[in-house]
């Protein structure tokens, strides 16, 4: 965490900053309590969150946005451990969450209507999107070994490399659609903290409410696609404790 913060203070190139911010929000998701303890110790909790929310508008790729969605959802889900000065920022977090969810639907629709993702580099930026290409290429839905064996002899070396990449970059979150994750967690949050949830809902404009509602309505369909493509899954993916 300290390394990420230090790098962010010096990073100027947008691509590198995006990578660092993704790592930061996944720290929220993985262990919010530990992450907050570090941020509070160095006095950057509020500034860090403000930076994430401000720069969220620059994220345009599916695999980038999904990481932001996981991290920001965790701030709401585990709001009971937030310091007061961060808890007061939850309306801004919720508005950003709604905006990102709507953007993710647009991206998903665009990708579904396109035969390939021409704007994504092949294996150069190893996010979930490129990971999906690796998995598709070697037919992971069967097994890596079977896929490699079915390839022509002249491509064995290439397939062995792809198989190693697939195992190394395996991500359990790949089979949990981020919008379905949000839908599930917000439903749980609404039951546990009804008053706070209603306050967050009031912070949205009518357009934002409509966009978020549309995204969550379509979440079940996205989750079915994710499970079909990547195997069985549950929303409760294991986190570090």
Task: List its traits.
0% strand, mainly alpha, globular, 241 residues
Averaged pLDDT, please? 81
Let me know the largest β-sheet.
Answer: none
Helix content: over 70%
Distance between the termini: 16 Å
Q: What's the SSE pattern? A: HHHHHHHHHHHHHH
Rg over C-alpha atoms, rounded to the nearest angstrom: 19 Å
* H/I helix tally: 14
Count of extended strands: 0
How would you describe the shape?
globular
Report strand %: under 5%
Which residue ranges are poorly predicted, with pLDDT under 50 across at least 5 consecutive positions?
115-125
Q: Pairing-aware structural class of the strands and helices? A: mainly alpha
Describe this structure in words.
With 241 residues, the chain is mainly α. It has 14 helices and no strands. It has helices at 2-10, 14-30, 32-42, 45-55, 62-77, 84-87, 90-113, 128-138, 144-150, 156-168, 178-192, 194-202, 206-217, 219-230. It is globular and about 60 Å long. 26% of the residues are buried. Residues 115-125 have low confidence and may be disordered.
Task: Summarize this structure briefly.
This protein has 241 residues and is an all-alpha fold. It contains 14 helices and no strands.
Could you give the topology of this structure?
Blueprint: H1 2-10, H2 14-30, H3 32-42, H4 45-55, H5 62-77, H6 84-87, H7 90-113, H8 128-138, H9 144-150, H10 156-168, H11 178-192, H12 194-202, H13 206-217, H14 219-230
